[in-house]
Amino acid sequence: MNRRLILLIAPILLLTGCWDIKQLNQLTYVSALGVDYVNNEYVLYVQVLDISKIGKSEQGSSGTEGPNIWIGKGKGPTFANAWNDLYNSTQQRTLFGQISSIVFKESALGKKQVEESLDTLERFVDARLTPWIYTTKEPIDKIFAVEPMLPNSPIMTLLHLPNGNYEQHSLISPMKLVEFAALINEPSASIIVPTLGLDDKLWKKDDKNMPMMNVNGAFLFYKAKKPQWISKNDLIGLRWVDQNTERTPLSLNEKNGKIKALLPIENPDVKIHSMVSKSGVPKFNMDIKVQATITQLNSQVSNKVLIREVKKKIKKEISTTYLEGINKKLDVFHLEEDLYRNNYKSWKSITKKNKFLLTPKSLGTIKVKVTLTDRGRKE
Predict the structure, then answer these.
(1) CA atoms of 121 and 83, how far apart (whole Å)
(2) Which candidate, 256, 280, 290, places its Cα nearest to that of 369?
(3) Is 374 exposed, middle or buried (0-12, 13-18, 19+ CB in 10 A)?
(4) Cα 88 to the chain's mean position, in Å?
(5) Hey, how many other C-beta atoms are within 10 angstroms of the C-beta on 139?
(6) Domains, the chain, ranges and CATH?
(7) What are the start-end ranges of the E strands in 89-244?
(8) What's the rounded Cα separation, in Å, for the pair 215 and 244?
């Protein structure tokens, strides 16, 4: 009997315990990280959200109660020093493994600052490269202080969940930090990182203006040069060349500026064909297929005319954005990347002679095929 009792008790004594496990309310979870560079010092911002409200919507708060957002700051001569400085003021164990976005201020976009930031993040055991990456010209603490609409979970903002907005209104594609890190040292890569702006004039809560985030442009990284900013309006043609585009609005206007028709465009498909002349001049032709739906029509216009005008406007937007990039010596449409992947020998020969291989004439023919849907019928 005693022997059987010992055999039953012995395995229990060998079980590991959980004496050091921490409750959720005993930990600080960082949800977003901001990187600034001021007076030769790194300034890091962290956004901390109330973990008990994440995942909740109507049950999360009463509407009069705020989302409980905390913002911390650390400084140091290096990225790692600034990171460690954050621990001097945190009140309990702080975890960085749940960061969903990283925001770089314009002043922190230098080659040295970006490389050091990525290097430290890759070495820090608690950090990951899965967050979204943004740039901004706004104060980072103001970006982090933006509240979600309605009594939603505090992560229900553009900062943490950009896909919902992008699926309905595709203009500048969101980017993951891991994708950025993979491309930053590629010899032909052009990287487009969305810029977060603030606007406090469009939304109100209880008759009080509420600041909301928007994507107002992007910084373009190209061949280790200083990143340059292009506004959303100047990048309007990017949506037709980006395979990530899901749904984007196209408006056709009368000569007096009034809207003639509104046509959401879905899932554009683009094929780029690169060629190099005997004299070594590259040229890029585009074949684009789009599906357009008529949601608003204010004039008596035939489908044939609509299709012609849609083609014309798409071509114009592509040309405008391309030339805007050329003026800044930027490859907005990743054309050099196509040549690098498909004709490496020519790419190597051309780039030896020219630091920037694109000219206004490098963009060749743009062919656009439009499938027009009207109340479920395809023309």
Answers:
(1) 10
(2) 290
(3) middle
(4) 31
(5) 14
(6) 25-232 (no CATH), 236-379 (3.30.300.210)
(7) 93-95, 101-105, 132-136, 190-205, 208-222, 228-231
(8) 16
Find where tokens 């930090």 sit. Answer: 177
What element of type H or E holds 35? strand 27-38
- Closest among 186, 177, 38 to 117, alpha carbons compared: 177
Beta carbons within 8 Å of 72's beta carbon, 6+ residues apart: 45, 46, 48, 86, 89, 90
For the full predicted model, state whether its pTM sits above 0.85: yes
CA 195 to chain centre: 8
Q: How confident is the model at residue 3 (pLDDT cuts 50, 70, 90)?
A: low
Q: How far apart are CA 341 and CA 332, in angstroms?
A: 17
Residue owning tokens 């196509």: 338
- In DSSP notation, 104-170 reads EEGGG-SHHHHHHHHHHHHH-TT--S-SEEEEESS-HHHHHTPPPSTT--TT-STTT--HHHHHHS-
What is the distance of C-alpha 37 from the center of its chain? 21
Per-residue pLDDT tens over the stretch 265-306: 999 999 999 998 887 889 999 999 999 999 988 888 889 999
Give the span between the Cα atoms of 26 and 31, in whole angstroms: 16
Q: Which token pair is 96?
A: 């960085």
Contact yes or no for 335/364 (Cβ under 8 A) = no
The DSSP string of 333-377 is: T-HHHHHHHH-HHHHHHHHHH-SS---TTSEEEEEEEEEEEETTE
